[in-house]
Amino acid sequence: MFKEKNIPLSIYVHIPWCIHKCPYCDFNSHEFKKQDIKNDESIYTEALVKQLENTNINNYRKPISSIFFGGGTPSLFNPETFKKIITKIKDKFELNKNCEITIEANPGTLDKEFFYGYKDVGINRMSLGIQSFNQKHLTKLERIHDQQEAIESASLALKLFDKVNIDLMFALPQQTKLELSDDIKMAIDLNSSHISYYHLTIEPNTTFYKHPPKLPTHDESAELFDLVNKKLVNNGFLHYETSAYAKKNSECKHNLNYWNFGDYIGIGAGAHSKITTNDSIRRYVCHKNPKYYVSEASKNNYINDEQLLSTNDRIFEFMMNALRINNGFKTNIFEERTNLPIKKIEKELSIAKDKELIEEINGRIKPTLLGQQFLNELLQIFLKD
Ligand SMILES: C[S@@+](CC[C@H](N)C(=O)[O-])C[C@H]1O[C@@H](n2cnc3c(N)ncnc32)[C@H](O)[C@@H]1O
Ligand code: SF4
């Protein structure tokens, strides 16, 4: 029997529109036409609320621990929209009293009234997509904001919200150490409690894939990563996950739930869910195209794909998530979340230990520095056919 009632549950809501599609971005986001956004917003919100209304997850679970409005660019939408969605969530589920509610925002959409409005409707964390403070890089990344707007939106977010994350990327086209150093300094000076620092990756189906820019070499990227890591750690940030840095007690609860193989309900175009019941773990994916998602919502049909996780899937997916956390996991969490005894992976754990990719400290299995650096090699050990 799976212990589904012990497993934390969170909610992800996807908003699939942006003002401009960035050349590196592979997320389910689409450029909207200015004249359509109001109409799209209200029709899409209706579909989201309907999907929530029709989501029936067993009600004896723990209260919802976090809600995340991601995109795309949720900050294009009106606070009233989020009020409707949060109200529906509260109708259907019990919220934890410290429920973390995050909205992703793009500094190029800075609307002061909207920012105040988000706070009024109960959003308590903002994640800002800044990417860089350097104008040359912002232009190359085709961002719709400049350095000044990035700083202004971060300052306002920090004034309004207890928790603010700043998304930045490194290993940008032709980025020098000096430029990166300046970016990191500006991020630190803003004094947010969380920074996500992503290595720019070139994803298929993006403009950068079709027209590759000149990127730093593998060795140069490793040096740039070292710079990010050293500067942030020296300034009081804990490097707690592959790309995430936080001041004490400021880790992102929502992402930690993914990495700890918790459950989540995904609402909206292309959103993913992972749900444990008393006899299985299943993944669900909603229809990806926003127009199709909306049209199918009228028939109460939201799901495009459903997958039952096999034993091997459960092992690999648990490891793929939990080994991203630098502090690793406790063996009882592996057993609770996969419904498998830790003995099942005894051989693989021993291989990974022999290769010095993991270590066991005080009952926690953690990736070593080598394991963090060669995470893919580490994960291969847990991949069975
Ligand atoms: C879904 S986006 C949401 C943020 C918001 N839409 C924005 O860009 O302002 C989340 C973050 O993923 C990161 N990201 C997107 N594409 C990436 C890529 N190809 N490589 C590395 N990081 C990427 C960016 O830092 C981005 O802020
Ligand atoms: S604004 Fe964010 S979600 Fe939209 S295209 Fe750019 S990176 Fe992707």
Explain this structure:
The chain is an alpha/beta fold. It has helices at residues 37-53, 79-92, 112-120, 135-140, 147-160, 177-190, 207-210, 218-234, 253-259, 290-297, 311-322, 331-338, 346-354, 369-373, 375-380; strands at 9-15, 17-18, 30-31, 64-71, 95-105, 125-131, 163-170, 194-199, 238-241, 244-246, 263-267, 272-276, 281-286, 303-308, 329-330, 358-361, 364-367. It folds into two domains: 4-257, TIM Barrel, CATH 3.20.20; 311-385, Arc Repressor Mutant, subunit A, CATH 1.10.10. Strands 9-10-8-7-6-5-4-1-11 form a nine-stranded mixed sheet, with helices on both faces. Strand 5, helix 3 and strand 6 form a beta-alpha-beta unit. Helix 1 (37-53) packs across helix 10. The protein is globular. The mean pLDDT is 95.
Strand order of the largest sheet: 9-10-8-7-6-5-4-1-11
Beta-strand proportion? 15-25%
> Hetero groups bound?
S-adenosylmethionine, iron/sulfur cluster
Number of helical runs?
Answer: 15
What's the CATH first level of the largest domain?
A: Alpha Beta
This entry's quaternary arrangement is single chain
**Poorly predicted segments:** none
Number of strands: 17
The CATH superfamily label of the largest domain reads Aldolase class I
Q: Taking Cα atoms only, what radius of gyration do you get, to the nearest Å?
A: 21 Å
Determine the fraction of residues in helical runs and give it as a percent range: 25-40%
CATH topology of the largest domain: TIM Barrel
Overall number of domains: 2
Largest pleated sheet: 9 strands, mixed
Specify the CATH architecture of the largest domain. Alpha-Beta Barrel
Please report the distance between the alpha carbons of the first and last residues.
Answer: 24 Å
What structural class results from the helix and strand content?
A: alpha/beta
